[in-house]
From TrEMBL:
GO molecular function, one term: pyridoxal phosphate binding
Keyword Transferase: yes
EC number: 2.8.1.7
Entry coiled-coil feature ranges: none
Domain of life: Archaea
UniProt record similarity statement: Belongs to the class-V pyridoxal-phosphate-dependent aminotransferase family. Csd subfamily.
Named cofactor requirement(s): pyridoxal 5'-phosphate
Organism: Ignisphaera cupida
Protein name per Swiss-Prot or TrEMBL: Cysteine desulfurase
Enzyme kind, highest EC tier: transferase
Length: 442
C-alpha cells in the first residue's frame, strides 16, 4: 500500500506556505512535484560527475556517459521494453510525438491517405499530424467523444479503413481522465495495417505500463509529469520501426560517419538524440522511475482511484448540481483528474480564488480546445448552444477547472479543498464582479 504521509516527507516543496496557508498541490496533470531523491541526483551529477556524453575518453565523460546510458536501461525497465535501445530521450511528450509525425509521416504518408485522431486529443498529439496532413495532402478524421466522456467506439469501423495510415490517440485524457480502450483501437488499426501512436503523457505516470502488452507502435510520455525534471521525456518505439525510421533532428551525435555527400546514421536511440542531450534530466528521470517502481505502479493507481472516488463523492454530496463535472463517473475508467465548473462562476476566477486558499489547480482549456468545444465545457449555465465564431469570445466562454492528484495527495487535502470551494461558492455573487485578468487557455 502507498502511505501518502510517508511519501510527503520526500517532497520539500510541500512545506511551502502559499498566502499563509499550507500548499495543496492539485495540478499534477500539468507537472508533478519533485522528491528530494531526484533533486539530489541532479545535484550529485553536477557536483561530482558533470561532463558531456559520448565525446571523451576522460574519466568524467565516461562516468556521465555511463549514467546517461543506464538511464535508458531504467526507463526500459519501467515500461517493460524489450531493450534499452527502444528508449529515445526527448524533451517532453510533444517532442516525442513530433518526432514520429515528421520521421514517419513525412516518408510514409501520401496524398489521399487518412490519419485518424480523436476529439479528445491534447494539441501535442493532434497538431503534429494535422501539420503533416497539410504538407502531404492527407485527410484527417476524428473519433468523437460521447457526452459522458468516452471515445465513441461505435465509429471505429466507419472511421478506420483501408486508407488509414496512422491512428493516434491519448491513452488517458488530460481533461476527462478517461482511460481509453487501447486494445479495441489497436485491433481495428491492425486490421487495416495502420501505424498506432499512443500519447502516454497522462497514463504512464499513473498506472502500470507494459509496452509488450499495449500493442502500439510508438508511445510518448513526459518525465516532468512523473516526478522527473523538466526537459525529460521518452519516446518508446518498436525496435524494427526505430531501425527503419529516418531521424527528425540531425546533427552531432547522430552519425557514425559523414562525407561531403553521404551520411551513415548511428543505431537507435542515438540517431534520434541529436546534439548534446539533456543529460541531468535523463539521470533525474531514471531516479524518478526507480522511486515509482519502489512504490509500485499498481499502488499509485489504487491510491488515485481512492482519491478520485472520495473527491467525486464529496463534490456530489456537498454541492449537488451547483457543480458541473466532466468525464466518466466510473472511477475505474479514469485517472485522478477531476475537471469541473462552478455554475456561472468563471473558471479562472475559481482557480484564482482557490489559490488564495493555497490550492493549486489549473483552469482553461488545458491544450484540448476541440474537446471543450465539442462537449460545450463552459462555466455558463445553461451551457452555450453553439461555439462562437470570434476567437476571443470562445477563449473567454469555454474552459474548466482541473484538479489532478498524485502520490502525495491525501483525503484531508480533499476535505480542505471542498471547504474552500464551499466558501468560494458562498461568495459567488461578489466574485462574479471580479474581472477575469488573464485568458490563459493552455
Ligand atoms: N499529451 C497529454 C495528454 C498531456 O496531458 C500533455 C501535457 N499537458 C502533453 C501531451 C504534452 O506534454 P508536454 O508539455 O510535456 O510535452
Amino acid at each position: 500500500m502507498l502511505n501518502a504521509d510517508e511519501v510527503r516527507k520526500d517532497f520539500p516543496i510541500l512545506n511551502r506556505m502559499i498566502h499563509e496557508r499550507k500548499l495543496v498541490y492539485f495540478d499534477n496533470a500539468a507537472s508533478t512535484l519533485k522528491p528530494i531523491q531526484v533533486i539530489e541526483a541532479i545535484k550529485n551529477f553536477y557536483v561530482n560527475h558533470y561532463a558531456n556524453v559520448h565525446r571523451g575518453f576522460h574519466t568524467l565523460s565516461q562516468e556521465a556517459s555511463q549514467m546517461y546510458e543506464q538511464a535508458h536501461e531504467t526507463l526500459a525497465k519501467f515500461i517493460n521494453a524489450y531493450s534499452w535501445d527502444e528508449i529515445v530521450f526527448v524533451n517532453n511528450t510533444t517532442e516525442g510525438l513530433n518526432l514520429v509525425a515528421y520521421s514517419w509521416g513525412l516518408h510514409n504518408i501520401n496524398e489521399g491517405d487518412e490519419i485518424v485522431l480523436t476529439v479528445m486529443d491534447h494539441h501535442s498529439s493532434m497538431l503534429p499530424w494535422r501539420h503533416i496532413a497539410k504538407i502531404k495532402k492527407a485527410r484527417i478524421k476524428y473519433i468523437n467523444v460521447t457526452n459522458d466522456g468516452y471515445l465513441n467506439y461505435d465509429q471505429l469501423d466507419e472511421v478506420i479503413n483501408e486508407k488509414t495510415k496512422v491512428v493516434a490517440f491519448p491513452i488517458a485524457s488530460n481533461v476527462l481522465g478517461t482511460i481509453n480502450d487501447v486494445r479495441k483501437i489497436v485491433k481495428k488499426a491492425r486490421e487495416v495495417g495502420a501505424l498506432v501512436v499512443a500519447d502516454g503523457a497522462q497514463s504512464v505516470p499513473h498506472m502500470p505500463t507494459d509496452v509488450r502488452e499495449l500493442g502500439v507502435d510508438f508511445l510518448a510520455f513526459s518525465g516532468h509529469k512523473m516526478l522527473g525534471p523538466t526537459g525529460s521525456g521518452v519516446l518508446w518505439g518498436r525496435r524494427d520501426l526505430l531501425q527503419e525510421l529516418k531521424p527528425f533532428k540531425v546533427g552531432g551525435d547522430t552519425i557514425k560517419d559523414v562525407t561531403l555527400d553521404d551520411v551513415i546514421w548511428l543505431n537507435p536511440p542515438w540517431k534520434f538524440e541529436a546534439g548534446t542531450p539533456n543529460i541531468e534530466a535523463a539521470i533525474g528521470l531514471a531516479v524518478a522511475a526507480e522511486y515509482l517502481m519502489k512504490i509500485g505502479m499498481e499502488n499509485v493507481r489504487r491510491h488515485e482511484i481512492e482519491l478520485v472516488e472520495y473527491m467525486l463523492k464529496m463534490m456530489l454530496e456537498t454541492f449537488g448540481d451547483e457543480i458541473i463535472y466532466y468525464g466518466p463517473k466510473n472511477t475505474h475508467h479514469k485517472t485522478g483528474v477531476v475537471a469541473f465548473n462552478v455554475k456561472n462562476l468563471h473558471f479562472h476566477i475559481v482557480a484564482q480564488a482557490l489559490d488564495y486558499f493555497g490550492i493549486a489547480v489549473r483552469s482553461g482549456m488545458h491544450c484540448a480546445h476541440p474537446l471543450h468545444y465539442a462537449l460545450r465545457i463552459s462555466h455558463e449555465y445553461p451551457p452555450p448552444q453553439s461555439v462562437p465564431d470570434e476567437v476571443d469570445e470562445r477563449l473567454k466562454r469555454f474552459g474548466s477547472v482541473r484538479a489532478s492528484f498524485y502520490i502525495y495527495n491525501t483525503k484531508e487535502e480533499i476535505d480542505y479543498f471542498i471547504g474552500s470551494l464551499s466558501m468560494i461558492i458562498l461568495l459567488r455573487e461578489q466574485l462574479k464582479t471580479k474581472p477575469v485578468e488573464a485568458v490563459c487557455t493552455g
